[in-house]
Write a structure and sequence with these properties.
alpha+beta, seven-stranded mixed β-sheet, two-stranded antiparallel ribbon
Length: about 260
Amino acid sequence: MATLPNPLPALVADPRGRALGLRLPAGSLVDTTDEGPWHEPLLWCADERALPGGWAALEPARRQGLLPVVLDVGDGHGGPDRWELMPGQVSYPGDHDAEDVLAEYWEEYAPEGDAWPGPAGPLPHTQDPDAVAAGLANSLLDSGGSLKDPRLALVPARRSADIPTAIGWTGPVNHEGDTARLSAVLRSWEDRFGTRVVALGFDHLLVSVAAPPGTLADAEAVAAEHFAFCPDNIWQGADPTLRAYAEHQVLDQPVWHFWWD
C-alpha cells in the first residue's frame, strides 16, 4: 500500500511544531508498541488535559497529513504509551469490503436464523462532517464532558476512519484482531453518514455523525450494522434489543459510542 511521509519525526527537534505551521502544547511522541519500539512515531499526545478550543488549534495540522483525535487516558489504563498497540499486526483498510466485513460479523454473532439485513442506505449530509466533529470534540473537552482525562493527539493518517489502524489500536481485540477491518467499516460510515473518529480510549471509540438517521426504520438499519460492528453495545444495554438500541442510541444521535470487553 502507498503511505504518506510521516511528519511526526520533525517534532523531535521542533516539539512545538513551528516548522509545520503549528503551535503545539507540551507533548510526547509515542512509538511504544506491544512488540517493542516502532520504527517511527505512531502519534503525538499532549502532556496535559485538553481544554475546550484545543481541537480547533490543531486543525492546521491537517495540511501536514496529521489528523486530530482525543485520547482518554483516565479510564484506568493510562496513556497510549501503555496501551497494547500493535501496528505490525494490522492490514490496510482499503483491502477490505465493509459490507463483507459486517456480514461476516453478523453471521458470527446474530441469533441463529436471523439473516443479515444488508447495509443501511446512505443519508443526505446537511452539515459539514468536520465541523460536527469539532463541535463534539469541544463538548468532550468541557469539564462536564464524558471523558475522564482527555488529551489531544495527532495521528498520521489519510482519513479519520484510518486513525485506529494507523496506531495499531487493539481496543476491540476480543471482537476483531485486525483493526483495519473495523476501519473499512468506519470508511463506509464516513461516506454514508458523515462520521468522523473523534475520541479513543483503551477499549472504546466515539464517532461524530453529520447525517444521523431521522426515522426509526433508518435507525434500525444502522443499528444492525452497529450490532455487527460491536455486539457489546446491544448485549450490555438496559434493553438488549435492536429496536430499543435504534430508538435510544441511533435515532437523531450526533455521536455513536462503541466499547468492547
